[in-house]
Every structure is written in structure tokens, then in C-alpha cells.
Automatic annotation (TrEMBL):
Residues 232-381 form the 4-O-methyl-glucuronoyl methylesterase-like domain. It comes from the Bacteria. Residues 1-28 form the signal peptide. Transmembrane segments: none annotated. Keywords: Hydrolase, Serine esterase, Signal. Pfam families: GCE_fung. This is 4-O-methyl-glucuronoyl methylesterase-like domain-containing protein. One of its GO terms (molecular function) is carboxylic ester hydrolase activity.
Length: 431
């Protein structure tokens, strides 16, 4: 893969056809969408290393100006602009224990209030390895959002049962958009809390619906209730959830038991889109992890493979800013693409993960974002993705400053994913 500024603007078709995937990756998905590599349209990616006026970026000193140009385009055209840290932000520990997870962990539940009047808040559930806390060693921590409440990630009966709106699900014990006791531990298969503790890491989890309930209501609920309705370039829900992760980071920086210099932000699916935007907008996150994030996340939009910009804006009109609808069935007109989102995080570490059967999320497009972000990482003195240009074998992670794997299975989070993320953290953080 060429690494010069000029060479990153290129016709991608030749490279794409060289990156063949196993037949299993062409599994059935929603009809009417493209899953055939031969039908991927020819496209040219906007070059992260060419200024808006055409000037090539050839030194690290030039990158901050180019980065600002790219960031402004994402703010204006894709995710939308969020407010800063609210003046009324404050925190309260609402529960804690030094005897959790079979005595291996401490548990703390922190309520983050977004306003002085305490009208809108989110809860952070924090597990830390007890042996590190007792030794007064600040703990490197994974900060995550979840889909069905903090109580769903573990059957620990002490976790506060969420009272926030959530999508009804018999499987998850959610009735009439509210959690029930049957919700406890309903998503535990995605959250190997004990394994994370055993590896010497902390876990800080937040229900994303505390920040902004995931339905289109014209931005009247959640934290949006504290602000004026967003303009066409105002924060959509993904930017709002990312804003909430930054507010969580505000808390983590105050907690002496957590190593705030070693916090990895992690998300799956729409929350993987969120983690990437959080990593791009908040330099305090040391590692950014995207699990099966697809369209609007790690996957290149111009490939129009699987889920498309038009589909995502139609099905979830609240996720992105209103300006993003200009690129429905018109991806080539968008001034940015997702490799530039990954590049915004440089030189900090990013891990992108795909699933073999998750063609809706376009695994190849996710990998290509890392490939085409790599020249920025190399310009800034890192090893990028190690010069890789071909997707790795199934279940064989690539681990450089940019990490990537495609594993067996479907659109979910598995122990393989988590073990890979912890291996990556071991390598990047060197505990």
C-alpha cells in the first residue's frame, strides 16, 4: 500500500478486488442491498493528507491544520456539533462495595448529573480488580456503553435497576419499555466481567439510553431536554452518546483508583460508531475500540456495501445530524469518509473488529478504513497497521498502532473479541 500523500487519493477497485473474503462472509442479509464485490461502485476516497486548498501534507507539523479541516467537515456534515462540558456537571457515589465478583473486585456506582438541578443523569457501573485497588495502583479501564442497562451486563443483584426508557424485548426482560428483574444479567454473555478483572483491567459501563433514549422524538428527551433543539448541523444521537462518554471521562479523571491516562473507549454496533466519534473528539481516550460498527462507523461509506447511508438515515433519522441526509444514495458527494474518522484519532491506538457473517456491516470496508488511515499514523511516527493491505485470516488479529480482526460468527460481542482487546491493551499500555 503506498504511503505518500498523493497516493492515498486513488481508485480503490483494484485493491478491493485483491482483498478476497471467505464465502461465508456472503451470508444472507436484508434484500435489496449489495453484497457482491463486483458491484461495489468505483470510488475515490478524499485524501486525509491533502489540504482543502490542494496542498500536500508531508510533515507532522502540518497535520493539526489538516486535522481541523477534517474535523469541521465531520461536525458539519455527519455527526453534528455538541455543546461543551456543562457548568452544572457533578457526581455522586450512590453505592459501593469492596466484595464483588466472588471477592475479586470492588464495585462502585456513580451518578453523573448533567445539570445543577439534577434533572438528567446517567449511572456509571465500575468494577475494579480488588488487588490493585488495595495496593493503591490506579487501574487501566475499559469505558463502555451498553444497550439494556447496567444491570443487564451481570446478574449482580446490587446493580441499580435502570428506570430509563429502553427498547422492549422479551428476551432481555424489558416490558413496556422498562426493565424488570428478569433483565438482570440478560446480556452477560457479552460482558466477561470476571475475565476482565482477572486480566488486571477495570470496566466502567453506562446505559446509553440514560444519555439519550434511542428513538426519534425530535430531540426533546434525555440530555437534549437541557438544550435548544439542534440545528441541521447539531448533535445527533451518536454525537450525544459520545458526549456522554466524555462526561464519564470527566468523572474518571477525579477517581484516584482509575488510571485516567489508560482508558479505552469501547462500543458495539451503533455504539461502535459512537466509540469512534468519542475517540476522535476527545483526546483523553488512550485506545478506541470499534466492534462491528459498519456504516457511519468504521466501514467506508463510498463502498455502499450492506447498510448504506440512505438506509441508516431512513431507519434511524436521529443518529446523525440532518445535513447527513444530503448524502443518501450520494455517498461520493460527501466531503469525508470513514478512514478519515479513524485518522482523526491518530496517533492514538485504534482497534477495529469485524465478524465473518456480518456482511451488513461490511467487514472489508471496515478493514479498508484502517488501511487508508495508516498513512496519517505513519506520518505521525507510528507503525500504522504495519504495512498490511490484505485482510488477515479469520481469527488472526493484526496488532499494531491500528489493530484489526475478523472473527467467526455474527453481529455480537464474543469472548474472542474481548480477549483480543485485552491483548491489544497489554501491548499498547505495557502494564
Amino acid at each position: 500500500m503506498p504511503t505518500t500523500a498523493k497516493s492515498t487519493t486513488l481508485q480503490i477497485a483494484t485493491l478491493c478486488l485483491a482483498l478476497t473474503l471467505p464465502t461465508a462472509m456472503l451470508s444472507a442479509q436484508p434484500a435489496g442491498y449489495n453484497y457482491d464485490e463486483a458491484k461495489v461502485p468505483a470510488y475515490t476516497l478524499p485524501d486525509p493528507l491533502v489540504m482543502a486548498d490542494g496542498t500536500p501534507v508531508t510533515s507532522a507539523d502540518q497535520w493539526p491544520k489538516r486535522r481541523a479541516e477534517i474535523m469541521d467537515l465531520f461536525l458539519q456534515e455527519v455527526y453534528g456539533k455538541a455543546p461543551g462540558k456543562p457548568e452544572g456537571l457533578h457526581f455522586k457515589v450512590i453505592e459501593q462495595s469492596d466484595d464483588a465478583i466472588n471477592g475479586k473486585a470492588t464495585r462502585k456506582q456513580v451518578r453523573v448529573f448533567f445539570d445543577a438541578d439534577e434533572t438528567v443523569a446517567m449511572d456509571i457501573l465500575i468494577y475494579l480488580p480488588k488487588k490493585l485497588v488495595d495496593a493503591k495502583q490506579p487501574v487501566p479501564t475499559f469505558l463502555t456503553l451498553n444497550f439494556f442497562g447496567n444491570h443487564s451486563i451481570s446478574d449482580d443483584p446490587a446493580i441499580v435497576l435502570s428506570e430509563s426508557w429502553m427498547r422492549s424485548s422479551k428476551e432481555k426482560g424489558v416490558v413496556d419499555n422498562r426493565a424488570t428483574e428478569a433483565s438482570r444479567g440478560a446480556s452477560a454473555s457479552r460482558w466477561p466481567v470476571e475475565s476482565i478483572i482477572d486480566r488486571g483491567y477495570g470496566l466502567a459501563a453506562i446505559y446509553y439510553g440514560d444519555i439519550d433514549p434511542d428513538f426519534d422524538d425530535g430531540f426533546k428527551n434525555g440530555v437534549h431536554a437541557l438544550y435548544d433543539p439542534p440545528a441541521k448541523d447539531g448533535w445527533g444521537s451518536i454525537a450525544t452518546w459520545a458526549w456522554g462518554l466524555s462526561r464519564a471521562m470527566d468523572y474518571l479523571e477525579t477517581d484516584s483508583e482509575i488510571d485516567a491516562k489508560r482508558v479505552a473507549v469501547f462500543g458495539h454496533s451503533r455504539l461502535g460508531k459512537t466509540s469512534l466519534w468519542a475517540g476522535a473528539t476527545d483526546p483523553r481516550f488512550s485506545i478506541t475500540i470499534s466492534n462491528d460498527s459498519g456504516c457511519g462507523g468504521a466501514a467506508l461509506s463510498r463502498r455502499a456495501f450492506g447498510e448504506t447511508v440512505a438506509r441508516i438515515n431512513t431507519s434511524f433519522p436521529h443518529w446523525f445530524c440532518d445535513n447527513y441526509t444530503k448524502y443518501n444514495d450520494n455517498e461520493g458527494a460527501c466531503p469525508v469518509d470513514q478512514h478519515q474518522l479513524v485518522a482523526l484519532i491518530a496517533p492514538r491506538s485504534v482497534y477495529i473488529a469485524s465478524a465473518e457473517e456480518d456482511t451488513w456491516a461490511d467487514p472489508r470496508g471496515e478493514f479498508l478504513s484502517a488501511v487508508h488511515a495508516a498513512p496519517v499514523y505513519q506520518l505521525l511516527g507510528t507503525d500504522g497497521i504495519g504495512g498490511e493491505t490484505e485482510m488477515p485470516p479469520i481469527n488472526k488479529p493484526i496488532m499494531h498502532t491500528l489493530g484489526y480482526h475478523v472473527r467467526t460468527g455474527k453481529h455480537t460481542v464474543t469472548d474472542f473479541d474481548w480477549n483480543s482487546y485485552m491483548d491489544f491493551a497489554d501491548q499498547r499500555w505495557v502494564k
